[in-house]
Design a protein that fits this description.
Shape: elongated
CATH architecture of the largest domain: 3-Layer(aba) Sandwich
Number of helices: 9
Structural class: alpha+beta
Strand content: 25-35%
CATH class of the largest domain: Alpha Beta
Radius of gyration: 24 Å
Largest sheet: 13 strands, mixed
Oligomer: single chain
Number of strands: 15
Number of domains: 2
Distance between the termini: 31 Å
């Protein structure tokens, strides 16, 4: 076996897909698209280096592996890297050579960033390769489906009708509200929450436009938002209806129907889960944040299952969801994802 290395060329993707076959993991499916022509980062595209390994047989090179390293506008403190080797060419040092070559290339990154990160699935060859070459986990992420009725509904105080009388019919109407995804108030809290849970890999300074594009734009599939507010207060004392809404304590943005868990039995899946992004006001105390998230999640999953991404850094959401996983009222959909870094 004679292996030679070269820059990525147009058409390599089609050849490699024939050699590799279908993706072995969700990470492979996601990152195969990162394998493309190298870029100097001067034409508006991110800086990228992509190298192909060819097995030369009778003077003809057949691509069998490829690796890429590239800058990211979001989470700019590390470079993404991805390497894939054909099954019948593994354990021959090809992946190690590609990683060594890519590490040499990072010195040319305009940002000056040299640290690498990647996504792997525990127990796979990719995870074992990352461990051998000094890429250790910095975050764990799971997709979790919360079953209908998994959480007890919160009890809201009766709403004051403005005449000093309590009205049970509208209890909670001044704290649980629909909100347009284009709301400036929503955009602000979503952006600050995302930054607060990514101290382990900073996203940098997020503009209003970036937050909209990432989480709330129509192109993301976002089609609704529900917020849980603090109880509104009145400047004129008890018995007088407040003129201002309470600030947002927790939020949930819903997206298109989530993909079904491929490992689950079809008869057990029932209704498709709605994909939601759940978070809270970062300034809340830990107990208050956990309570707010739990109350909002109970409303979301009252009659229909919801699917959400649960990172280990989401402490308030973990406080609500992990007990449900332990009791079978929620289930993990698919395998965990580890983000590893050097």
């Amino acid at each position: 076996m004679a292996i030679e290395y070269r820059e990525w060329r147009e058409g390599d993707d089609l050849t490699l897909l024939e050699i590799w076959g279908g993706p072995e993991t969700e990470q492979a499916r996601q990152f195969r698209g990162a394998l493309t022509v190298s870029s100097a980062g001067t034409d508006g595209t991110p800086w990228r280096r992509c190298i192909v390994a060819e097995d030369v047989i009778d003077g003809v090179g057949i691509p069998v592996a490829a690796g890429a390293v590239y800058e990211a506008s979001l989470h700019p403190e590390r470079l993404w890297t991805y390497i894939e080797v054909a099954r019948d060419h593994r354990r021959a040092g090809i992946g190690a050579t590609l990683l060594t070559m890519l590490r040499r290339e990072v010195g040319q990154a305009p940002s000056g960033v040299t640290r690498l990160r990647a996504k792997v699935q525990p127990g796979t060859p990719g995870a074992a390769f990352a461990e051998v070459f000094g890429l250790a986990p910095i975050q764990r992420s799971r997709l979790v489906v919360v079953e209908p009725g998994a959480l007890k509904l919160p009890v809201f105080p009766a709403k004051n009708d403005g005449g000093g009388l309590a009205n049970d019919e509208n209890a909670g109407s001044d704290v649980v509200m629909d909100l347009a995804t284009g709301s400036v108030e929503l955009t602000d809290v979503v952006g600050r929450y995302y930054t607060s849970i990514h101290g382990w890999d900073s996203p940098g300074v997020l503009s209003v436009g970036q937050v909209q594009k990432l989480f709330l734009d129509d192109l993301t599939g976002a089609h609704g938002a529900l917020v849980l507010r603090a109880e509104p207060g009145s400047a004129f004392g008890a018995g007088v209806s407040p003129s201002k809404k309470g600030r947002i304590r927790a939020f949930a943005v819903s997206y298109a129907e989530a993909a079904q868990d491929p490992t689950a039995d079809a008869s057990a899946q029932g209704a498709k889960a709605t994909d939601v992004f759940v978070g809270h006001e970062p300034a809340l105390e830990a107990d208050d944040a956990a309570a707010a998230v739990r109350d909002l999640l109970s409303l979301l999953a009252y009659q229909h299952p919801v699917m959400l991404e649960l990172d280990d850094s989401m402490t308030a959401l973990r406080a609500a969801v992990e007990p449900l996983l332990e009791t079978g009222k929620a289930r993990q959909a698919g395998a965990e994802t580890l983000i590893v870094s050097d």
